[in-house]
Design a protein that fits this description.
Shape: elongated
Domain Phytase-like: 507-781
Mean pLDDT: 91
Signal peptide: 1-28
Helix content: under 10%
Domain Choice-of-anchor I: 80-311
Protein name: Esterase-like activity of phytase family protein
Number of helices: 6
Low-confidence stretches: 1-38
CATH topology of the domain at 3-31 and 506-801: Tachylectin-2, Chain A
Keywords: Signal
Structural class: mainly beta
Largest sheet: 5 strands, mixed
Amino acid sequence: MSPNRRHAAFIASGAALALGLSAFPASAVGHQVSTSSTSGFSASTFGPGSAKHHETFHRLATYPVFQNAPAGTDPEDETVAEISAVSEDGNTLVHTDAAARRIGFLDISDPDAPQGLGSLSLAELGSEHDEPTSVAVVGHHVLVVVDSSTSFTAPSGRLDVVDLATRTRVRSIDLGGQPDSIAITHDGTRAVIAMENQRDEDVLADTGAGEEGDLPQAPAGFLQFVDLAGTDPETWQTRPVTLDVAALAAAGLDTPQDVEPEYVAINPSDTKVAVTLQENNGVAVLDVVSGALESVFSAGDVALEGVDVDDDGAIDQTGSIEAVPREPDAIGWVDDEHVATANEGDWKGGTRGWTVFDSTTGDVVWDAGTDLEELAVRVGLHNDDRAGKKGVEIEGLAVATLDGVRYAFVGSERSNFVAVYDVSDPASPRFVQVLATTNGPEGLLPVPSRNLLVVSSEEDSAEDGVRASVSVFGKGNGYRRAAGTPAFPSIVSADVRTSAGVARPIGWTALGALSADPTRRDHLWTVTDAAMSPTSILSVSTAGQRGKKAAPAVIDREIVLTEGGEPVGLDAEGIWARPSVKGRAGGFWLGVEGATGPENALVRVSASGHVQERVSLPDDVVAGLGKWGIEGVTGTVDRTGEHLFVALQRGLTSDAGVGGYARIGRYDVATGEWTWFGYPLSAPTADGDWVGLSEVTVVDRDTLAVIERDKLNGPAAALKAVYTVDLPERDPRPGQVPVLDKELAIDVLPALRATNGWTQEKLEGLTIGGDGRVYAVTDNDGVDDATGETVFLDLGKARKLFH
């Protein structure tokens, strides 16, 4: 910034405020905000006072498990984390890795910094087909449940007993079928294993009728009870237990002759074991000693109203689902009389929620209904690709008592979060918090002795930058990193009333741009990109951002874009809120990236969301564009007129011979003239990486701030920064593109890493608010090949950062 021009600083945020003009009358900005919610959630649910410090969970670390692979392993090879267990001292974590046919060991004695301890190959102990399906720890031994099946009609499996200290197998026990999950009594004297003998989804039922994958398909599943008496594994004995077909039939299960047990859990007093029969939509409860069947019941059906049911890019919460079976996967005991199920569904159902049952009668005492679908929408984790299937797909569930409070942890496989509930009253669970995870949270492991929750996430794709990981969360003051609310969510949406008068959260995803609101100091504007259609311009309140009890930013207003009277979807990558000047209407300019060069444009939009004008880039610029186009827009209005600044993400092909730079363009709205400047890009730090621009904002009359970033995420992320450039006092001659000098203003990478989660790739939004503070936001890619977590950052005072 030129010192003699510092008096003109912060035009982008302050010009309209100085003019005192209104650009956005309340009657023209879309939906009315409501403070109520049908589920009990609202934006205020995540603000100060929503949870006391002692019951708040804080993310401490995220460990990518590929870093613990054996020496010589290609780091891009698939390696996953599914089900996990912990040593009795709470310091050593063991997780299954079915993709790599091994189990992994992690040292979590310092939960802020998990360390890899290596792995044990099950394939080397058996064959290349062997996959661990579950794991448990008893005393000094790890019990690894292994599926060794080579066919569905001849399932096989074993229980490998591994010495925890030496990580060597000391015994292998044949299980007589294909196992799934294992549970151990709290006193460590018994284990129960669900022997699923799963169906082949590509063949007809044994009856020869129905659809491929239908039941029954022999052999039927059963349970294996294991007597763990004594410390010598050589003395341990197994006892198969089959479920009473007549009792199952009497309970109304579809195909009781083929139950396929899925998940087992043991009650707090070590007297009962509950097992889900997912494909049969049932739950059975047995005596943990004798194996006698005590009760069995259908999990029942649920119909839903007010959810998104179409994967069409729009977040439409007016859809409905006819009554479908819950088909529970994971199960946990709330107390000795109640069980909770994660209703993932399989082939007939999936109700997008979780349920608490009376374990004796099977009566439903509480059901989540649409709560978790609404939660995903509110925190930006709605996965539209799954809307037409099983939505948030609740698969994992664990119940445990931490600091005297009974909690249920409920995991969404497709929206990458864990919801935390206080279930002290089984008939009235109280939502406490939502935790962001990496992709596909599968194993939820509370560690009560250390007030920890460990989440194992299974989805792994090096090509997409999505890696399986183990996330560690700590509860209470002992793990509090700062006063106030948790780091996630950092932005949520408020409610609006639908046409039917029902309160629903504003739907949002993929925020790739920011602009100051020219009339309100505590508000910003953002816009959704191509991940959502139609495009929505969103108002963001930052009023609760500061102070010791900071609250998330709140999306409190939505404007749906229309063109020719119809909703329209644009790949909006930049937004600038225009002030009203001398009778000229306000509204917005959007920077729209096209699939091809000619489709890149500046789009002027009215305050009520109507597209009014499209401005194409110059022909010579269009000719040099590849697939990377407009990534940001900002502007100024002063005595010389209205000018827009546009950031192009990458260099033009025509610029390739003159150095590695991207282009920043200035557009004179009155004359239609373009002036271009070069921005020198940093060199990539890794093979296959590239560096580009993703936002531009005005600092003062001659200074711009831009986001420069690489395309890397997670531990590989190396460049997420804000630089400033000073524009020359004289414009270049036509056809010339002077390269500007840049100066580092803000290294944003530390702030992104401070979330202790997966470091986000797409730092894409930046602005100086009317309050003089610098805000930034990450684009979550619509939860598509990304964790979906949105990080909204208050980076501090602009006058201190841009000096």
